[in-house]
Design goal:
Two copies of one chain form a homodimer. Chain A is built from 15 helices and 19 strands. By secondary structure, the first copy, chain A, is an alpha+beta fold. Chain A folds into four domains: about 80 residues, Uridine Diphospho-n-acetylenolpyruvylglucosamine Reductase, domain 2 (2-Layer Sandwich), CATH 3.30.43; about 120 residues, Uridine Diphospho-n-acetylenolpyruvylglucosamine Reductase, domain 3 (2-Layer Sandwich); about 110 residues, 2-Layer Sandwich (Alpha-Beta Plaits), CATH 3.30.70.2190; about 80 residues, Alpha-Beta Plaits, CATH 3.30.70. In chain A, strands 12, 13, 14, 15, 16, 17, 18 and 19 form an eight-stranded antiparallel beta sheet that branches. Chain A has a five-stranded antiparallel beta sheet with strand order 5-6-10-8-9. In chain A, strand 8 and strand 9 form a beta hairpin. In chain A, helix 9 crosses helix 11. The first copy, chain A, is globular. The model of chain A has no long low-confidence stretch (mean pLDDT about 95). The interface between A and B is large, with 101 and 100 residues. Chains A, B: It comes from Methanimicrococcus blatticola.
């Protein structure tokens, strides 16, 4: 059987097995590598269904890829086989403002959806850092979130229905177009975050939200990262639900000031950027005041602004952070390992202290930032990639960071997912629940063709 | 083997098989009946685990019951066996305001949780009509919602972690205490709404929300139920997310006026009660104005009030509605069948028209109310329960209503669940996805002991 020819027929010629092209599909934003044998470019649900039925029959691994912006190797075909590049299924199929929903194909780029929704006064809230390039299918498969999710919730809160192709090619709908429905097992939520291991998403009905009309930014500096962590609890206890809540430790701030010496950031400590939003200017003003007073006692300085130019400058700087780390030391590169810890909010000061303790012992400089309103602690570890010893240190640091998060009652991944990068911690993280995940995987993908080597499942 | 004695040993004497007592467990708020053989009252997770391991070995059905307020027979032991009465596991185990969460046992009464949280300025938003008596475990098992969910979301949005006992007695944790976590399959969401068919919940970690400080009620009457339905889309399109959005058709209003001739309800049409809430008085005022103007063109009258006495009176009247229906005709009783339809918002006018058409043809008077902001259409059908012909009519009406909802792209249950009452529509509603549900059930409960006869699964 010539798999290439068969797959080529199914996808009407949209296939490649050229070595140079396959290399483009061998990586994502993580350190995980793995080359596919074929890349196919389906255009319809029926084509996806035929590809899966064929792969299932011939036991060929199938990995689904959106834009490849993942940070855990979720879309990397570590066992070879077929890579489904979903980028040609990228249409907005309908915008139903009166039903507060849209129907889209999985290859649609996230920002494109929000640009299209803006004139209607609506938006799709989950906003991962990669929104400019990542796809909606990838967002769903990894339950992506981002800065706004502290107020608006993660991707799973917005998925009403998914069209999914199962391992054997069967097409199902996981939900309905209703905003609320209570009809047995919530299969939509099971597929959100399942990283392509249970089926291939070919269509999604998503709830949308009215765009807030007013926003205000409150930038607060604290004398210690512990105080910065504490501020989050205080703000919530004051009854304010901020629309963003980002921590940047002293190292992160110093990177930004190296990038732009005039950047509007306080130089006197660890910084938390809060944002409040709403449909009323007065409400936003009041929330900002309430938030500032909740933090006053434990902070060094407070800046409140609704100047759009200043706000843009501050948020642009924050968004640059992940990439800008090289400014700290041009000989070093940031590597995404141990980068996505999460803890209950009260444990933030402890987690932050632990990151400094571990990296200090090992001799790596960390940068800490993240969505602290959700308990997310992004750790940036950077090394000289030509130095083998530094790679070893990095692995040890990442391992200890993951274990420290679990020990604090936290999570090895707050929002980036497990992929092939964190599978080895699943048993420790999930305990006997991991057995339930394995059983579900075995039931829905008995031949193990769907994204093998991920989630620690195989 | 004497099951009674074995179970008695496990639960340290907390068991009954007295016929009169068993009868008390043979029903819920629906028409479904079924008597257990034993009722046990576990006090610990370990006892639940031992009961399940025993039942699994001896193939005895196990049905879990909170307060028995369900409306679809979910907690009714239709195949006999063991009934787990969870009411003695009813403690609030911890209140962690700084982590924005609580840990509770499943037998805790919902309102009790909110009374306890009130002094802290927080609340657990999902608010089914039965909140005064229903339990948190029941809320989770049925993904309960209610009036506020249009803004705050349903129970599933608030479950961070569940301790669950599986069919064989294994205890798992489905999540973490983190506000955000991305670690493989979302088992918490799989268990929410699974109606006791996949395991028994013994503990829950729930996210809570800051209590809004201000509320305002906007009562709007419309010349037709279609216009009332339309108002919802208009309000959302205006950028307002109301904290409640309840429709009461002309019949519902007439029932309330019969109950209390002075009740503050307009007599000139179908009514929608909107509420807006927030942490700022100005914001709430502005939202109320915006909402009112969005509806002005299509409405007959608008009343805006933040007078707490008036608001209480109006909401109390709304809450009485389900029970007060007998006032329309004292010889008739409301029966909960076909009562929980849902459709995409734009289809509300069509669904409402369809309810009138079907009930008119069959000769039953309907009352329509519900959370229209979510597309929920509660239909009250009432009959003379001594008249066999009326029962037949009722069954025909319910059947046609369910099918009509499916045809409109809607759902047979918006929030009450499937239980034993709606299982026969699952295949039609879910299509091939129902096969996935069956496969998951078979995997996690191979002997079929967990709440058999529910969700159409067995």
């Amino acid at each position: 059987m010539d798999h290439y020819e068969e797959l080529k027929n199914i996808c009407e010629g949209r296939i490649t097995a050229a070595p140079a092209e396959l290399c483009c599909y061998a990586a994502d934003g993580s350190q995980i590598k793995g080359k596919p044998d074929y890349v196919v470019f389906p255009k319809t649900t029926d084509e996806v269904s035929q590809v899966l039925a064929y792969a299932n029959k011939h036991l060929i691994p199938v990995t689904t890829r959106g834009a490849g912006t993942g940070l855990a190797g979720g879309a990397v075909p570590v066992r070879g086989g077929i890579l489904l590049d979903m980028s040609q299924m990228n249409q907005i199929l309908s915008i139903d403002i009166n039903d507060i929903q849209v129907t889209v194909e999985p290859g649609l780029v996230a920002d494109k959806l929000n640009e299209t929704l803006k004139p209607y006064g609506f938006f799709f809230p989950p906003d991962p850092g990669s929104a400019a390039t990542c796809t909606i299918g990838g967002q769903i498969s990894s339950n992506a979130s981002g800065m706004r999710c502290v107020k608006y919730g993660t991707t799973k809160n917005y998925v009403l229905d998914l069209e999914v192709v199962l391992a054997d090619g069967t097409v199902i709908h996981t939900g309905t177009n209703c905003l609320k429905s209570s009809i047995g097992y919530d299969l939509s939520r099971l597929y959100v975050g399942s990283e392509g291991t249970l089926g291939v998403i070919t269509k999604a009905v998503l709830k949308i939200s009215p765009l807030p009309k007013f926003r205000k930014l409150i930038m607060i500096s604290f004398p210690s990262p512990e105080n910065a962590g504490l501020s989050v609890s205080r703000v919530f206890a004051a009854g304010v639900v901020p629309s963003a809540c980002e921590i940047l430790d002293k190292t992160s701030v110093s990177i930004l000031t190296k990038l732009d010496p005039d950047v509007i950031f306080p130089r006197d400590g660890d910084v938390v950027l809060f944002e409040v939003d709403g449909s009323s200017k007065n409400a936003v003003d009041e929330s900002a005041e309430l938030l500032a007073s909740a933090c006053e006692e434990i902070s060094s300085s407070i800046l409140i602004t609704d100047d759009p130019v200043k706000m843009k400058e501050i948020w642009d700087a924050r968004r640059l952070l992940g990439a800008a780390v090289s400014k700290l030391d041009p000989t070093k590169t940031r590597i995404y390992v141990g980068e996505d810890l999460g803890v209950p909010i009260q444990k933030l000061p402890q987690m932050i202290a632990k990151v400094y303790e571990i990296t200090n012992e090992i001799g790596i400089t960390p940068m800490i930032y993240g969505h602290v309103g959700d308990g997310t602690v992004h750790v940036g570890l950077f090394i000289d990639v030509l130095d083998k010893d530094e790679w070893k240190k990095l692995d040890i640091a990442a391992d200890r960071l993951h274990l420290a998060a679990i020990e604090l009652g936290g999570t090895i991944s707050s929002e980036h997912g497990i992929g092939a990068a964190r599978g080895m911690y699943m048993e420790k993280q999930c305990g006997s629940a991991f057995g339930v995940m394995k059983a579900i995987k075995k039931t829905l993908d008995p031949n193990g063709i769907l994204n093998p080597g991920k989630l620690g499942l195989s």
